[in-house]
Design a protein that fits this description.
There is one protein chain. The longest helix has 22 residues, at 2-23. This protein has helices at residues 2-23, 78-81, 85-94, 123-138, 155-166, 194-205, 208-213, 217-223, 239-251, 267-284; strands at residues 30-38, 43-51, 65-69, 102-106, 117-118, 121-122, 148-153, 173-177, 227-233, 256-261. With 287 residues, it is α/β, with parallel strands linked by helices. It is globular. An eight-stranded mixed β-sheet has the order 1-2-4-3-7-8-9-10, with helices on both faces.
């Protein structure tokens, strides 16, 4: 009787584990938060990192890396809490829809800052001169263009696109979600808050649409070597500037995928977009 009970218990445990694995409820990737002390910004900046399942055991293996930028008034850990990134990574790697990769989610600062250099906040300089080298020394990253991608939503989507436009030799793929490519026309009136006005000026100074429109042929040829994907909801206030960016890419003969799905400027849209982004950048790694 005891033997039968023991066998029954083992069967239940194994069945439960098998169900959890099939359902994707057993986390395989590792997510944590770390920080870097920046000399450029003169502050300590946090970042979230998602490491693949095999990272701890395959100690001689190097991985591609995705830099994932958050939006205005958001923070680095929003990708975990609201974006459910660990669950998406486990699901997509489990079905071979995405490859194992290291995902780095930096903290872009408070609502008055952003991803570009402004007075007292040289974040773009920090990102390329401090943060990217720091990450790719600390973690086992395949540190070349074919093993590096960038993505983001809203302000972070605009930052991701602008970074790739200005540094086309660094990234293999770009996935832009509901992106602040430039300020919408209705938002170009002066802002009373001088800090927010500085942010708006930095977005206009890094206008992604204008960059493509006025780029020379040598620059355009480099941009054609990157895989581009623009994704924006049909009810999003940034839809027009995303459509304008796609039109400029078409004029410049730069291949770019463009999707307009049902939705607005929120996590209900960005979670499915993040799933698509992980698959998209995976396809570009190694090419």
């Amino acid at each position: 009787m005891r033997k039968n009970s023991f066998l029954l218990l083992c069967t239940v445990i194994l069945s439960t584990l098998a169900f959890e694995l099939l359902a994707g409820t057993t986390a395989r990737s590792q997510v944590g938060e770390d920080s870097i002390k920046s000399k450029v910004l003169n502050v300590t900046r946090k970042y979230t990192v998602c490491l693949p399942e095999s990272y701890a055991t395959a100690t001689g293996k190097k991985y591609p890396v995705l830099y994932l930028l958050h939006g205005h008034s958001h923070r680095n850990n929003d990708w975990v809490r609201d974006g459910k990134i660990r669950e998406l990574v486990d699901q997509l790697t489990g079905t071979n829809e995405a490859c194992e990769m290291i995902i780095i989610m930096p903290d872009g600062g408070s609502i008055k800052n952003g991803y570009f250099d402004v007075k007292g906040w040289n974040y773009e300089t920090f990102f390329f001169e401090e943060f990217l080298p720091f990450v790719e020394k600390k973690y086992r990253v395949n540190g070349d263009q074919s093993g590096r991608a960038i993505a983001g939503f809203s302000m972070g989507g605009g930052g991701a696109v602008a970074y790739a436009l200005k540094h086309p030799d660094l990234f293999s793929s770009v996935y832009a979600m509901s992106s602040l490519m430039t300020l919408p026309r209705q938002d170009r009136t002066p802002v009373r808050d001088p800090k927010m006005e500085e942010f708006g000026k930095s977005v206009l100074a890094n206008d992604c649409n204008a960059y493509v429109a006025y780029a020379d042929e040598a620059t355009l040829e480099k941009l054609r070597g990157i895989r581009w994907f623009v994704d924006c909801g049909d009810d999003d206030f940034l839809l027009e500037v995303n459509c304008d960016f796609y039109r400029e890419m078409q004029k410049a003969k730069i291949p770019c995928e463009f999707r307009v799905r049902d939705g607005g400027h929120d996590w209900n849209y960005w979670r499915p977009a993040l799933s698509m982004a992980l698959s998209f950048v995976s396809e570009g790694f190694g090419k």
